[in-house]
Amino acid sequence: MKFFKMSAVAAMLASFAFSASALTPVSDEALSQVAGQDGVSIVADLQVNIGSFTYSDSGNTASMNGIAVSGVIAATIDVVSGADFQTAAVGALVGTGLTVAQAGAALTAAAPLLGFTGQDVIQIGIPAVSGTNGLQVSVASMTTGNGGASMGGIALRNLDIGGTKVWMFGHN
Fold it and tell me: Which of 40, 116, 120 is CA-nearest to residue 80?
């Protein structure tokens, strides 16, 4: 029986060697015809619970307690060129009411402060997904002071962040 097991293992290893030797190189011309897909897609079912968030200023405090975020969110991650990032960023600024010239000037002024020198940028996009209920955010109670009485809670329903983009890039 031991001989049979060893023979089976040897046969399996030999088949790997034969299949590896059957590989053939691909020419540059043939490889140039191969198309691939770039980027990554992520889908998450969020179930985030935060015990409390406290804001303090000069000894005065306000707390939000029992914070919960739930819902399905999707995101894509892509690498975009610096030029494509600049076009998208200017478009985003134009969406806030600036003219194209004003948006371009603002991006040009901010670039050295942010360390942007035209390099490739990682873009995280959150697409709008029809048929979903968006995110649900709730705060069980809000209090002031150290353990003050509750002022009630709040709830945000169907929070839609579809179309949101986040850009990341390295700098020194």
Answer: 120
Q: For the chain, what's the residue count?
A: 172
Q: Report d(CA 61, CA 70) in Å as an integer.
A: 27
Q: What single letter denotes the amino acid at residue 98?
A: L
Tokens of 167: 């850009």
pLDDT at position 158 over 90: no
For residue 26, what pLDDT is reported? 73
More confident residue, 27 or 49: 49
* Alpha-carbon distance values, 41 to 31, 74, 115, 131 (Å): 25, 7, 27, 19
The token pair that represents 55 in the structure block:
């804001």
Domain boundaries, the chain: 38-81+120-168
> Which among 136, 151, 134, 135 is positioned nearest to 64, based on CA atoms?
151
- Alpha carbons 100 and 123: distance in angstroms, whole number: 21
- Please enumerate in sequence order all residues whose Cβ is within 8 A of that of 27, keeping only pairs 6 or more positions apart, or say none: none
Amino acid at 114: L
